[in-house]
């Protein structure tokens, strides 16, 4: 396998599964242009430069993430690799006309593990609101249970031993243009009520269950 | 039972203090948002008035409010002897208290150009900078590089190590004050590299913010701190 082809194949700036203006008015085209077009792009480009000529070159993204996490004593490529992964996961966690309460099996599982959708909402909201500094809040799956996790900077549940199902980016760049005056709580509410793609969460959950069995 | 054991350990002089405390008459020291020593727009074009206003009135104010809340809760936990409650509050205190400490320094680290902002340091600090970093340009280049490379949120600092008697450049994560990197470190200049410090004006281009912020750094204040602490 040619090294350069592997790098290109593995580290690609994939566009979100919707046009950049499709999440308006909840997340503006301007935010997507910067967040995807500049921030996410930079993580991908810098990762490529960083692994070029090293033993990590050509390795799958998740391999790089696991190997550079180093039990929290992060090696240099971790940040770019994890952020490239996190952002692709984030775009796919949202959809136009999304948000609200899920139904079917997903709702049943949320009710089983959080007692109600509302309790899940509160826990996810609290995690996203109280992650000090930059980071992410997640719905994750481990040991046949759903749980809410918050992580700093580029850390994600992959390195903590669980399957990510849903994420919200709470780095300031994710909401600073649309929710001015430091209104992270309003951004979280908008994400939960108007943007979450429960279809994506469901298919990730199926994959996680299959992988665990 | 607690009252009896406290009273038996106190001297007569201490009893008065104890009973005031039990009656809730002692209050903890809380904090208020310091005023900026210049108008919000006075640092333009290096830092926009819009950013200065939001940074001061929303971000710093939030740290002050949340710090005071955490301190009130800490006071209650201490008085109840709630050990795990006290420990649980430490991260909120570090984050919000650090945010208040750091931003209070930051506003003094900046000054409008017509009040000396950007003017190179002279005297003892200027000499020390040249000695340790070769030149002011050398120091600025180093701090800007470290500030740009910082992942996530944090600060880049010029500090004085009082014990080793030398200048240091270091970074701290989130709202950790410089002292968390070493008990003898005194902050002289701190540059906030949280995205909120520059995003509305410079967007994702943090290096551009770092290039421009030096035009309004108040070296006079840094010199005073340096002289006092040497």
UniProtKB/TrEMBL annotation, chain A:
It catalyses: 2 superoxide + 2 H(+) = H2O2 + O2. Residues 102-204 form the Manganese/iron superoxide dismutase C-terminal domain. It comes from the Eukaryota. Its cofactor is Fe cation. Keywords: Chloroplast, Iron, Metal-binding, Oxidoreductase, Plastid. GO terms for molecular function: metal ion binding; superoxide dismutase activity. Residues 11-95 form the Manganese/iron superoxide dismutase N-terminal domain. GO terms for cellular component: chloroplast nucleoid. PANTHER family: SUPEROXIDE DISMUTASE, SUPEROXIDE DISMUTASE [FE] 1, CHLOROPLASTIC. This is Superoxide dismutase.
From TrEMBL, chain B:
Residues 121-224 form the Manganese/iron superoxide dismutase C-terminal domain. It is found in: Mitochondrion. It catalyses: 2 superoxide + 2 H(+) = H2O2 + O2. Its main location: mitochondrion. Residues 30-111 form the Manganese/iron superoxide dismutase N-terminal domain. The keyword RNA-binding does not apply. The keyword Oxidoreductase applies. Its EC number is 1.15.1.1. Destroys radicals which are normally produced within the cells and which are toxic to biological systems. Belongs to the iron/manganese superoxide dismutase family. This is Superoxide dismutase.
């Amino acid at each position: 396998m040619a090294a350069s082809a592997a790098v290109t194949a593995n580290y690609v700036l994939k566009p979100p599964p919707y046009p950049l203006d499709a999440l308006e008015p909840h997340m503006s085209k301007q935010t997507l242009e910067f967040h995807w077009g500049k921030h996410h792009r930079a993580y991908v480009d810098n990762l490529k430069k960083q692994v070029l000529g090293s033993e990590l070159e050509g390795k799958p993204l998740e391999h790089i993430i696991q190997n550079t996490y180093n039990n929290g004593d992060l090696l240099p490529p971790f940040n770019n690799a994890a952020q490239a992964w996190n952002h692709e996961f984030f775009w796919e966690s949202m959809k136009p006309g999304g948000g609200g309460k899920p139904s079917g099996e997903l709702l049943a599982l949320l009710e089983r593990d959080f007692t109600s959708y509302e309790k899940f909402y509160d826990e996810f909201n609290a995690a996203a609101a109280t992650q000090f500094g930059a980071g992410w809040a997640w719905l994750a799956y481990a040991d046949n249970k759903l749980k809410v996790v918050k992580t700093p900077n580029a850390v994600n549940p992959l390195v903590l031993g669980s399957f990510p199902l849903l994420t919200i980016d709470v780095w300031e760049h994710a909401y600073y243009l649309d929710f001015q005056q430091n209104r992270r709580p309003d951004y979280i509410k908008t994400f939960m009520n108007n943007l979450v793609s429960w279809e994506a969460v469901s298919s990730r959950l199926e994959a996680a269950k299959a992988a665990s069995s | 039972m607690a009252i009896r054991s406290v009273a038996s350990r106190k001297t007569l002089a201490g009893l008065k203090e104890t009973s005031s405390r039990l009656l809730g008459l002692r209050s903890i020291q809380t904090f208020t948002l310091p005023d900026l020593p210049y108008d919000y727009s006075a640092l333009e074009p290096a830092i926009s008035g819009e950013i200065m206003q939001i940074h001061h009135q929303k971000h710093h104010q939030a740290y002050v409010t949340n710090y005071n809340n955490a301190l009130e809760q800490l006071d209650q936990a201490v008085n109840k002897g709630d050990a795990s409650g006290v420990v649980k509050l430490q991260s909120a205190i570090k984050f919000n208290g650090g945010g208040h400490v750091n931003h209070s320094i930051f506003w003094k680290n900046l000054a409008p150009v017509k009040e000396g902002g950007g003017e190179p340091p002279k005297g003892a600090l200027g000499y020390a900078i040249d000695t340790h970093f070769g030149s002011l340009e050398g120091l600025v280049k180093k701090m800007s590089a470290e500030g740009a490379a910082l992942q996530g949120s944090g600060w880049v600092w010029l500090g004085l190590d009082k014990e080793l008697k030398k200048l240091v450049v270091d970074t701290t994560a989130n709202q950790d004050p410089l002292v968390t990197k070493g008990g003898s470190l005194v902050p002289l200049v701190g540059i906030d590299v949280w995205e909120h410090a520059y995003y509305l004006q410079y967007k994702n281009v943090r290096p551009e913010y770092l290039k421009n912020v030096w035009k309004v750094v108040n070296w006079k204040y840094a010199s005073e701190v340096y002289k006092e602490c040497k």
